[in-house]
Amino acid sequence: MSTDSAPNRSEFATTLQIIPVVFFTFLCYLTIGIPLAVLPGYVHDDLGYSAVLAGAAISVQYIATLASRPLAGRSADTLGPKRTVSIGLLGCGASGVFLLLAALTSHWPVLSLALLVCGRLVLGFGESLCGTGAILWGIGRVGTANNARVISWNGIATYGALAIGAPLGVAISHAIGFTTLGILVIALAALGYYVARLIAPVPLVHGERMSYRSVFTRVLPHGIGLALGSAGFGSIATFITLFYAARHWPNAALSLTLFGTLFIGARLLFANTIKTYGGFRVAIASFVFECAGLLMLWLAPEPHVALAGAALTGFGFALVFPALGVEAVGLVPPASRGAALSAYSVFLDLSLGITGPLAGYIAGEFGYGSVFLFAAAAAAAAVVLSTVLYLRNAKVGNLSAVQ
Q: φ and ψ at 210, to 5 degrees?
């Protein structure tokens, strides 16, 4: 019994070291999630702009996130994760200030929209720095042997905060008013900034630093795999409600709940498989599950099958980011880990940005169900790519052992 309990105590102690720093990711994504479901209605209904412009006002955040990824990586490597997280939280707080000002100037629609866009841009900057910095801070606290665990917990914090934040923002906006959301965002960012000051920094990693272009080239294949796998998530998040509506099925929201529940459950229960079996093998299995779930959605004759497909897709997608991410970060010197992580994360941003309009075109031409067939094909391509990477890695390892 003592033999079994010792590793469990060690894993629990490691988790306790990780949770305080991914807490900042949780707060960051709460500031993203709280206004997320409210802003389109505010821009369209209150300010009187078109639905297209309302959508663009939301999407501009992701452009800022994508553009600031290189800065986030370099900041984590050179300034340190703690300072990077703190700067990111300041960005989140500044977005709350712009959100508050936008609410107070709603009688001047042009000014209000301009302030809102500025807030979204600053929030994208804050998201990039906070997310990258928190992962590197966690790795610095528990060591590179626990890379997958840190990345997994960071993802749980991300999606958990979005799941909580969106309905919370809607409820607060209806009960108290839109202006309150800006105040709440400022308060959450201030809380994070204060708590960050209380946690000790980790030492900067010195040594060889690769150029960002070299890092990007090295993690490119892994990033492509991440992008292909993320198409399933993007398709479900964007089109599952329309898919249900087109078939006159109830409870579309339940499919999203099951997707998220299985996603978080898989990360909690199976994060150690990456350390045990290696990132590539876990990624291959994950893509197979994801592909199967998406095919179930495409072929679903009734809502129960669609629910099972959404759940299986969430289970499969759960470990994609940490599995390929561990392999990607391992390709660069320790002093360039932040750059590798940010370069790798770019492909998630790109995938979610491209999937929406591409899947929308497919839905318009072939129907909403075809969106999930398209995403299943992307997951199948990711299986092939991950297998090739696994075999190439094994070949290199065998050659090194012979020499």
A: -80, 155
> Which of 351, 358, 374, 388 lies closest to 224, judged by CA?
351
CATH of 209-403 among 3.30.470.20, 3.40.50.150, 3.40.640.10, 1.20.1250.20: 1.20.1250.20
Cα-based distances in Å from 30 to 23, 64, 349: 10, 18, 18
Residue identified by tokens 């790519």 is 385
- CA-based R_g, the chain, Å: 21
Q: Are 316 and 184 in contact (CB under 8 A)?
A: no
**Contact at 8 Å (CB) between 141 and 17?**
yes
Q: What angle do CA 181, 185, 188 make, to 5 degrees?
A: 135
**Nearest-angstrom CA–CA distance, 363 and 236:** 12
Measure the CA dihedral 287/289/295/300, to 10°. Answer: -150
Q: Kindly list the domain boundaries of the chain, sorted by start residue.
A: 13-200, 209-403
Burial class (CB in 10 A: 0-12, 13-18, 19+), 116: buried
Structure tokens at 149: 């665990």
Q: 243 and 310 in contact (C-beta within 8 Å)?
A: no
What is the second-level CATH architecture of the domain 13-200?
Answer: Up-down Bundle (1.20)
Label residue 309 exposed, middle or buried (CB < 10 Å: 0-12, 13-18, 19+): buried
Digit-by-digit pLDDT tens for the chain (403 residues) are: 444 555 567 777 888 899 999 999 999 999 988 887 788 788 888 888 876 677 677 778 878 888 888 888 888 888 999 999 999 999 999 999 999 999 999 999 999 999 999 999 999 999 999 988 998 899 889 887 888 888 888 888 887 887 788 778 888 988 998 899 999 999 999 999 999 999 999 887 776 778 888 999 999 999 999 999 999 988 887 778 778 888 988 877 788 888 888 988 998 888 889 988 999 999 999 999 999 999 999 999 999 999 999 999 999 999 999 999 999 988 888 878 888 888 898 898 888 778 777 887 888 888 889 999 999 999 999 999 999 999 998 876 555 554 5
* CA 168/CA 33 separation, integer angstroms: 8
